[in-house]
Design goal:
Blueprint lengths: L4 H4 L3 H18 L5 E4 L6 E3 L4 H4 L6 H6 L5 H12 L8 E3 L1 H8 L5 E6 L2 H11 L5 E5 L2 H9 L6 E4 L8 H15 L4 E8 L2 H13 L5 E7 L11 E7 L5 H16 L5 E6 L2
Parallel strand pairs: 1-4, 1-6, 4-5, 6-7
Antiparallel strand pairs: 2-3, 7-9, 8-9, 8-10
């Protein structure tokens, strides 16, 4: 699977991921200064009149979010961020995790995102330029995040690979284990597609075999997973999930499936192990 951020920006999976990232960030901020690391940062900010036009996934995702009524609070929080970036109305710009996080940083907080693709890294740095405590840099995010976490206390690590490589599931699990092995107070949020459930089950088993605890899995299946060639669902796996994460994930996934899904879709939040 090749999950290019710019092509899929603003789709249903982004809504699940970013609404939960916002909640996790606020939860960590309630404890004190927070350092966020992002293994696959992407461009940071997306113009939906670009690559996303071809996929039309934003039309079925963020465009419907912004016209929906009776949005629950955690979905409303994401909608407010999108609206702030589109003061003229409509939904031309959509924030990736870097800009979404940077906008929420306080004095004492920090964000560091890693990106391997040089042109995308340049866009990332440009998107983060307004915030002195948010930086983008070149590098293999798996390795760089492990190194960066060594100098931090209780970091929030986001792992969101494009799944261009066959070892992305393995390296995601290994990176989570390395960071939490060095600092058990860290929190790791990993986004994955839901296509091949055997692969996803193997990923969860790797986390369990690494001895990781408090593993929360939040699934949003917009339609039955009967076509492995299509991404009909996604999951956010939160390792060392804080108190309240289960309810937050249920609200986010539940709304996404009910508002954007087809018949046969379902939201499920469960704990591994």
């Amino acid at each position: 699977m090749n999950y290019r951020h710019s092509f899929h920006a603003g789709n249903f999976a982004d809504l699940v991921k970013h609404a939960l990232v916002l909640w996790l960030l606020k939860e960590r901020q309630a404890r004190g200064p927070v350092a966020v690391l992002d293994t696959h940062a992407g461009a940071g900010l997306y113009d939906l009149t670009g690559d996303a036009v071809r996929s039309r996934e934003a039309e079925a995702g963020v465009a419907r979010l912004m016209t929906a009524e009776a949005r629950p609070s955690l979905i409303e929080a994401l909608a407010a961020e999108v609206a702030a970036l589109n003061p003229q109305g409509g939904v031309r710009f959509y924030p990736g995790s870097p800009v979404l996080t940077a906008r929420a940083l306080r004095a004492g907080d920090s964000y560091r995102g890693f990106e391997l693709n040089p042109p995308v890294e340049a866009l990332l740095k440009e998107a983060l330029a307004p915030w002195s405590n948010a930086t983008g840099q070149a590098g293999d995010g798996y390795d760089e995040a492990v190194r960066a976490a060594r100098g931090l206390k209780a970091p929030l690590l986001l792992i969101d690979p494009p799944f261009e490589r066959p070892d992305d599931y393995v390296r995601s699990a290994e990176t989570a284990a390395a960071v939490l092995g060095a600092d058990p107070t860290a929190c790791v949020a990993i986004w994955t597609p839901l296509k091949d459930l055997e692969t996803f089950d193997g990923f969860i088993r790797r986390l369990e075999q690494a001895g990781l605890s408090r593993v929360l899995v939040a699934e949003a299946r917009l339609r039955p997973l009967n076509n492995p060639m299509k991404m009909n669902g996604c999951a956010m796996t939160v390792v060392n999930a804080p108190s309240g994460a289960e309810a937050a994930a249920a609200e986010i996934c539940g709304w996404t499936v009910s508002a954007l899904g087809d018949a046969g879709g379902r939201a499920e939040v469960w704990r591994a192990g």
